[in-house]
Amino acid sequence: MTKARLFRLSVVLGSIFMILLIIVYWDNVGTAHFYLHTTFSRPHGVLPTVAKDGGQDSMSDVDEFLEKLLSSDLKRDVGLGQKTEPPAPHASARPVAGNLEENVRGYDWSTRDAGAVLDQEQLQAERRRTLRELCANSSFAFPTKERSFDDIPNYELNHLIVDDRHGVIYCYVPKVACTNWKRVMIVLSESLMDQGVPYADPLDIPREHVHNTSTHFTFNKFWRRYGKFSRHLMKIKLKKYTKFLFVRDPFVRLISAFRSKFELENEEFYRRFAIPMLKLYSNHTSLPTSVSDAFEAGLRVSFSDFIQYLLDPRTEKLAPFNEHWRQVYRLCHPCQIEYDFVGKLETLDEDAAHLLQLLKVEHLLRFPPSYRNRTASSWEDDWFAKIPVAWRRQLYKLYEADFVLFGYPKPESLLQN
């Protein structure tokens, strides 16, 4: 009797286990066969064997099974790519006269002097070496530096966009050409369609769809689909795929964020940030509920208000910095993720062209033309002229890790005058 019960129990447990494995298999492979909607596009190549952890001599049976599933899945034809839901009726994202923000930014459609192209291989080697050495340097410390990749919460991985079709991971940094890089990722992954056809020109993708979080498949979404296998999958892709990010001078990025979010009428940022700033730092007690009414009344956040907000210890206690002024090391985790390519806005055109060549996709698209009148580092003196030196020094300490990690010189003139 006891043996019969044990046998029945083993059959039940075995059935449950097989059902779970079938679910995993269907999620990774089955949907591709039937061309159904799925978050993943078709990857390329074969994944490597996962490195063994610490004292473990071998992977668990489940991990080994998952590895085989992933490998077999990745060998299949990349032409079976996923197609996500089509967007609302198409509206071109190219600059038009009525688009205030695009007019403020402007585009530079001029061609580049080929003779000015930098030695990209050497430049990239130097940028990667700087990151490796500083991350390994125990005397250089900043928050979160010492934690492992497994220690990073899922919600902090929401800036890592994955393209499985070409094996690319992009960590986007707001105010560093991220709109156009997101457009490029959409074209590469074919994750968005216009009237049933994937977008082929990045600039044809409407801006509102570019920044829609449902458009991109990011690391923080893995757990919903893969549960306990999420980190395992992330590590495989981090090892196999080409990982890149773009950065810019931290202080100039702050100026750009201020101009974009507080000098233009932005209802969301007015309600979430401008109203509290005006009350806390400009002593306004009664404020209009809409940004248009506030602008008409001459009530605008000053750059000084913005700097005070960043330095105020109450800001981080209430909520993490908004992504537009959050430090790059907190967005992209450069000491936990070994990036293959580090681009800079200051050399955007050359870096973008070289990256597309490295990814072997230059025949598919070109990076959209960069903005003219970009916020320039030469503007720093004017913008910080009315900011007390003590505040400037505090601000530098707040963003020092970004300056150092990405090779930006310390702004001595701003910190001493």
Automatic annotation (TrEMBL):
Membrane spanning residue stretches: 7-26
Bilayer topology: Single-pass type II membrane protein
Alphabetic keyword roster: Carbohydrate metabolism, Glycoprotein, Golgi apparatus, Membrane, Signal-anchor, Transferase, Transmembrane, Transmembrane helix
GO molecular function: chondroitin 4-sulfotransferase activity
Pfam family, any one: Sulfotransfer_2
Biological process per Gene Ontology, one example term: dermatan sulfate proteoglycan biosynthetic process
Entry EC no(s): 2.8.2.-
GO annotations of cellular component type: Golgi membrane
Coiled-coil parts of chain: none
Cellular location(s): Golgi apparatus membrane
UniProt entry tagged with the keyword Lyase: no
Domain of life: Eukaryota
Major location category of this protein: Golgi
Keyword Nucleotide-binding attributed: no
Family (UniProt): Belongs to the sulfotransferase 2 family.
Protein name per UniProt: Carbohydrate sulfotransferase
Organism: Podarcis muralis (Wall lizard)
